[in-house]
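Researcher: Quick test of sequence recovery. Tokens follow.
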């Protein structure tokens, strides 16, 4: 078996505990700061009888999850980029697959569960303060309702981008990853626009779509059903399934390249 793909459960568990130990200090400091901010902000909102209190959790949970997740994931390989600690980490008695899975599990599933649980506990405290001190009943935070589940899924997609960026960029990885994703998106839009211009040339007037020509096109019933139902499932599969797996696979080869 390829030495880079070896997976030993016992060794993986030890590596995961090690990564958890080194990440816990940073997470606790950041978490304490966020907790203090939330409590103080909530107290101020209760005091002023803010009209937006009913949307408190809808406003803050997505921000904390996404922004915190991006920053945490972007620093997940910080140890590997430092001169002395980088040599120690890259030569640890663990395969590339084990190192990747440990960091991946820590920055995706574990981070998401910890943040969601910590926010839920904080929401209970904030709700109790609002009810007992100010007589205001704040709506309960439901971690896995439809609204919050959408942001959890979005976080896992964004995590795959910034996870690759954390391996690829030595410093300011979250900034460089964001800029790279932005430029890539623009290039892809231009490529798709060029392809559409070449294929559907008769619907364009220069580079602008002619509304008159588009209105004359009557799609068949089969194409209409495909566009309404099947295409949506295909795009969801590509976005939610293929994209993260592809980026995590590329991340594996980038980490393998660093070890070599």
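Model:
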């Amino acid at each position: 078996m390829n030495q880079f793909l070896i997976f030993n459960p016992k060794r993986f568990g030890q590596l995961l505990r090690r990564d958890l130990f080194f990440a816990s200090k940073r997470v606790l400091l950041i978490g304490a700061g966020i907790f203090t901010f939330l409590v103080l902000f909530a107290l101020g909102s209760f005091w002023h009888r803010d009209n937006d209190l009913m949307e408190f959790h809808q406003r803050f949970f997505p921000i904390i999850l996404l922004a915190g997740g991006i920053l945490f994931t972007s620093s997940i390989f910080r140890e590997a980029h430092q001169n002395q600690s980088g040599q120690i980490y890259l030569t640890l008695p663990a395969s590339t697959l084990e190192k990747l899975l440990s960091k991946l599990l820590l920055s995706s599933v574990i981070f998401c569960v910890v943040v969601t649980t910590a926010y839920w506990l904080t929401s209970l405290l904030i709700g109790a303060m609002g009810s007992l001190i100010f007589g205001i009943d704040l709506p309960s935070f439901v971690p896995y309702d439809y609204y919050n589940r959408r942001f959890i899924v979005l976080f896992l997609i964004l995590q795959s981008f910034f996870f690759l960026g954390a391996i690829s960029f030595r410093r300011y990885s979250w900034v460089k990853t964001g800029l790279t994703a932005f430029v890539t998106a623009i290039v892809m839009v231009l490529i798709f626009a060029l392809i559409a211009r070449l294929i559907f040339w008769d619907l364009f007037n220069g580079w602008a779509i002619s509304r008159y020509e588009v209105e004359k096109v009557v799609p068949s019933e089969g194409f209409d059903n495909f566009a309404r139902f099947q295409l949506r499932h295909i795009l969801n599969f590509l976005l939610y399934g293929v994209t993260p797996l592809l980026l995590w696979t590329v991340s594996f080869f980038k980490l393998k390249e660093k070890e070599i």
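The chain has a mean pLDDT of 83.
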